[in-house]
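Practice problem 4.
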């Protein structure tokens, strides 16, 4: 009886390993994509990319870079908050925007971008600008930023968004 259990266990292990190795490229891509875009489980996505694409270094590297990029976008949208009280004003031929951004997440941000949309009276975007910082922004900390952009009489409103981050 114990020999049959051992044989059965070995057979199950072989089938499981064959199944995971036998996935098509589309199935592997879907697994990684699901981990990134639906579950926001970036560590799982990295693990899958390393497992699935270990034989092709360029594919593996491309997937890891894409995962980091998507994780940065997700983190910026969910954990980098432009603080209330930011101001914009016109001085000569330039629009200036001054504000602060806060890292409300639990990761160190070593790069971020704050984008501004300049809107007209109809709330249509008439121009854009951004600023960035490559200084560490620790969890719970804030950093000041400033955007300077050529003034246009079409600009009536300004909207700010954190759109990109790189995590350490």
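Answer key:
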């Amino acid at each position: 009886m114990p020999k049959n259990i051992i044989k059965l266990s070995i057979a199950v292990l072989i089938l499981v390993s064959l199944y995971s190795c036998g996935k098509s490229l589309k199935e592997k891509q879907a697994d990684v994509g699901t981990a990134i875009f639906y579950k926001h489980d970036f560590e799982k996505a990295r693990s899958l990319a390393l497992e699935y694409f270990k034989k092709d270094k360029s594919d593996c590297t491309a997937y890891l870079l894409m995962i980091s990029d998507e994780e940065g976008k997700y983190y910026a949208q969910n954990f980098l908050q432009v603080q209330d009280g930011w101001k914009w004003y016109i001085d000569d031929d330039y629009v200036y925007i001054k504000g602060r951004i806060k890292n409300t997440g639990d990761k160190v941000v070593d790069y971020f971008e704050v984008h501004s949309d300049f809107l007209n009276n109809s709330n249509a975007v008439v121009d854009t600008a951004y600023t960035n910082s490559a200084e560490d922004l620790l969890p719970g900390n804030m950093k000041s930023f400033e955007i300077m952009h050529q003034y246009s009489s079409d600009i009536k409103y300004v909207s700010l968004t954190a759109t990109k981050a790189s995590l350490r």
